[in-house]
C-alpha cells in the first residue's frame, strides 16, 4: 500500500504499471528491521540472507529499466514502518534460567 502511495505522488510517467514489487519490498523491509533490531539473536545465515535480499532488490531496481523506483522504495520503507509499529506493541519476553 505504501508503495502505491509513493507511486501516486512521485511517478510522472504516462503508462500504467502493474506488478508485485511493492509488497515484496515491504517484506524485505520487515526482514531488514527485524535483522537490525534482533542482530544478536539471529544466526549468521539469516543475516547473510537479509543482506543478499537487499542486494538483489537494489540491483534489480536499478538494472531493470521498466521498474518504478518509487514503488520499491515505498514498499521497503512501509515494511520498516509496519515492523516498527508492531514492535512497539510487542512485549519483550526475556528467558531467565534458574
Summary keywords:
single chain; flat; mainly alpha; 98 residues
Could you walk me through the main structural features you see in this protein, from its secondary elements to its overall organization?
The chain has 98 residues and is mainly alpha-helical. Helices cover 68% and strands 0% of the residues. The longest helix has 21 residues, at 69-89. It is flat. The mean pLDDT is 78.
What's the structural blueprint in terms of helices and strands?
Blueprint: H1 2-10, H2 21-37, H3 44-63, H4 69-89
Helix pairs in contact: 1-4, 2-3, 2-4
How would you summarize what this structure contains?
This protein is mostly helical.
Order of helices and strands: HHHH
Which structural class fits the helix and strand makeup?
mainly alpha
**Which percent range fits the helix content?**
55-70%
Distance between the termini: 46 Å
Backbone CA Rg: 16 Å
Let me know the number of strands: 0
**Which regions have little confidence, pLDDT < 50, spanning 5+ residues?**
none
Beta content: under 5%
Tertiary shape: flat
Largest sheet: none
Mean pLDDT score: 78
Number of helices: 4
